[in-house]
Amino acid sequence: VNYENSVDWKQSTDHLQSNPSFHGHPHFNCTLIQLTAERAVSVQLILMFKYKLLDIGAFQFALVQPYTTGVISGSCRIGRDLRLACVKAVPRADLIIILLKSFIQGTLLFPDVGEE
């Protein structure tokens, strides 16, 4: 994913991966996507694939697991102080397919150790 870095305004690149066995453990990167014209959301990348249509061309897609925002958590006060967002994954049954060009940039999501 290529994006403009807001620190120095230079083009930067995130190399995203989806691997069910990365050194013996599953590894699925997270990214920020443009869901609608007004809304960007975090998703976990599950699978990337290309679909070719005769006489039209190839399209690149991703199967992703969206995350909801605005989750209430006991440790969110610390998150607000650090300007972090609390998110929660939607159920695996609600995976969606999106165009790869919807990706904005990679994101870092980390589990809240204070929550179960």
Description:
With 116 residues, the chain is mainly beta. Helix content is 5%, strand content 51%. It contains 1 helix and 10 strands, in the order E-E-E-E-E-E-E-H-E-E-E. Strands 5, 6, 7, 8, 9 and 10 form a 6-stranded antiparallel β-sheet that branches. A hairpin with a 6-residue loop joins strand 1 (2-4) and strand 2.
Give the gist of this structure.
The chain has 116 residues and is mainly beta. It has one helix at residues 76-81, and strands at residues 2-4, 11-13, 18-22, 25-28, 30-34, 40-53, 57-69, 87-89, 96-99, 103-107.
Layout: helices, strands, pairs:
Elements: E1 2-4, E2 11-13, E3 18-22, E4 25-28, E5 30-34, E6 40-53, E7 57-69, H1 76-81, E8 87-89, E9 96-99, E10 103-107
Antiparallel strand pairs: 1-2, 3-4, 5-6, 5-10, 6-7, 7-8, 7-9
Structural class: mainly beta
Task: Determine the strand fraction and express it as a percent band.
Answer: over 45%
> Which stretches are low in confidence, meaning pLDDT under 50 for 5 or more residues running?
none
Query: C-alpha Rg, in Å?
Result: 16 Å
Query: Biggest sheet, open or closed, and with what strands and sense?
Result: 6 strands, antiparallel
How do the SSEs run, as a string of H and E?
Answer: EEEEEEEHEEE
Q: Percentage of helical residues? A: under 10%
Mean pLDDT: 76
Q: In total, how many beta strands?
A: 10
Give the terminus-to-terminus CA distance: 32 Å
